[in-house]
Write a structure and sequence with these properties.
The chain is mainly alpha-helical. It is about 75% helix and about 0% strand. The chain has 22 helices and two strands. The longest helix is centred in the C-terminal third of the chain and has 35 residues.
Length: about 525
């Protein structure tokens, strides 16, 4: 079977989902183009600034599209490509895109506040406390996972390491040109993109070879600095330049599939149980992770995107459409693994990014790009996304810790140390993530990350359900995905607690158990709050 059929099916399903189900959701959410958004009513020229739909979609997509939708499908294809493909299609249309769209609208209707603030208003302060602890724990897992992924990729593909390091300096220069030297955006962009291409070339010519452990340490130092530094000097410039890499990667990947049309070599289905992963249910669903649904997206949607939404009608293309574009990326990643024969997949499955880079590099040779250059570009692109996820997650973890310890109404000098000192709050998160990295568990953390991330999505859907319920509005379209994700993720976490205890992985067992209990407590708190509201 030619892989072009998978892409055509995915595009048709996602297009139909956007038009039909996305339109249905917009109607039920009462999307009103005449209603003023917080970007206008609270415009401060800093955080609340209206952005045109194409610009905001680019920002939102670059923020949510990390390495997870690439890694997850490649790992999960061990069960066979058919169940992975079905979950990406069904999960993307009916769960992931619903989650992103409704989280964005809920935040907009709450003055652009975060999901944590929405939970406090709809469920109560105790619910917000549970959510902050849960989201902080999940973010630590995200940091640990991507330190491992990036470190191992840099060890196996050293050219991507040197190019990524140079890319950081290019981003800093771009920030200085734009903000300090007041160079126009057009000229700053031209210089940045040219230097970006030069960084890729120099990295390919002068690869930096270091062991994975050395890269782990370097990455921990980097994310600490990046997460406490002003956003204009690194994070904003790199995210902006990242979008050009992202679009180029998507274009080259789709072009490679269309032109090369590689045959699907992997079996359609292998087994209900994979020794290294577990049973198809629930492990496949939490392994695919962000390719179908991601709780991290709710943090982005309610963090920056909601504050820039120019018109409520744009929420559909940004929230619902942005997730479906990410699902297309997941299908591309699936194809790069499915085009391998089982022996090739087995030999490379220790590093999904290597599989993805190999697949794209092979396809790019069909239109004149040398294999090594194509493979390096693909690995650099994924590493760049993973680095974005790394420092964004570290910064969000710091925000969660500071918000948890913040005392309402107290002046800055009377706030607890962990609330007012961003360096200590960041350092704690980095150290704990580093401890997980060197625990020897490696990518065994991935299923727990997938479970925690999707359970975070269930909690975001829970907050949307509570909001719609309090306003006496129909909410089955969020309640059903919420219940499904609770069943999937709590089942996965329970299995992981048992398996890790049996295998002596007490650290991961403890993390999984804590996340399980926090989710249960928050669900009970929500049910109690809604029951009391109905009785009042």
């Amino acid at each position: 079977m030619g892989s072009i059929w998978l892409i055509l099916i995915a595009v048709l399903v996602f297009f139909a989902g956007y038009v039909l189900y996305g339109g249905f959701l917009a109607c039920h959410l009462g999307i009103d183009r005449e209603r003023k958004t917080p970007a206008h009513t609270m415009n401060d020229g800093v955080d609340y600034v209206p952005a045109r739909a194409p610009v905001l979609l680019g920002h939102h997509f670059a923020s949510i599209a990390g390495a997870a939708p690439i890694i997850g499908p490649i790992v999960a294809v061990a069960f066979g490509w058919v169940p992975v493909m079905l979950w990406i299609l069904v999960g993307g249309v009916f769960m992931g895109a619903v989650h992103d769209f409704t989280s964005l609208v809920a935040s907009v209707r709450h003055n652009g506040q975060s999901i944590g603030e929405v939970i406090e208003e709809e469920i109560g302060k105790r619910g917000k406390t549970f959510f902050l602890i849960f989201s902080w724990s999940t973010l630590i897992l995200i940091v640990a996972v991507f330190i491992i992924v990036v470190g191992e990729t840099f060890e196996k593909i050293p050219a991507s390491a040197s190019a990524s390091v140079l890319f950081i300096f290019v981003a800093v220069l771009f920030g200085l040109l734009l903000y300090k030297f007041k160079l126009s955006l057009i000229w700053s962009t031209i210089i940045g993109v040219v230097l970006l291409a030069a960084a890729l070339y120099v990295g390919f010519i002068f690869p930096v070879q270091l062991p994975a452990l050395a890269w782990y340490i370097i990455l921990m130092v980097y994310i600490f600095i990046a997460s406490v530094a002003p956003v204009w000097i690194l994070l904003q410039p790199r995210d902006y330049l990242n979008s050009f890499i992202l679009y180029a990667l998507m274009a080259l990947g789709l072009a490679g599939i269309i032109i090369a049309n590689p045959e699907i070599q992997m079996p359609a289905f292998t087994s209900f149980k994979i020794e290294s992963l577990g049973y198809l249910f629930p492990i496949l669903f939490v392994t695919v992770a962000c390719g179908a649904i991601s709780g991290f997206h709710s943090l982005v949607a309610s963090g920056t995107t909601a504050k820039q939404l120019n018109n409520e009608k744009d929420a559909r293309i940004v929230g619902y459409g942005g997730m479906l574009i990410e699902s297309v990326l997941a299908v591309v990643a699936l194809i790069t693994a499915a085009m391998l024969v089982s022996a090739e997949y087995t030999s490379m499955k220790g590093n999904p990014i290597e599989i993805f880079s190999h697949g794209l590099g092979t396809m790019m040779t069909r239109f004149g790009i040398e294999y090594g250059a194509g493979k390096t570009f693909a690995s650099l692109a994924v590493s760049a996304f993973a680095l974005t996820s790394l420092d964004t997650a570290t910064r969000l973890a710091r925000f969660a810790m500071q918000e948890f310890f913040h005392k309402d109404g107290a002046p800055e000098e009377q706030q607890p140390l962990l609330s007012r000192n961003r360096y200590i709050a960041t350092l704690i998160g980095v150290i704990l993530a580093g401890a997980l990295v060197v625990s020897g568990q490696g990518l065994k953390i991935w299923p727990i990350f997938g479970s925690a991330n999707q359970l975070l999505a269930a909690l975001a859907l829970l907050s949307v359900t509570a909001w719609l319920s309090r306003h006496k509005k129909s909410n089955w379209f969020v309640k059903i995905p919420m219940i499904a994700m609770f069943i999937i993720t709590l089942s996965a976490l329970a299995i992981m607690v048992y398996q890790n205890i049996m295998n002596g992985g007490y650290v991961l067992a403890s993390v999984a158990a804590i996340l399980f209990l926090l989710a249960i407590f928050l669900a009970i708190e929500t049910r109690t709050r809604l029951r009391d509201a109905r009785g009042s």
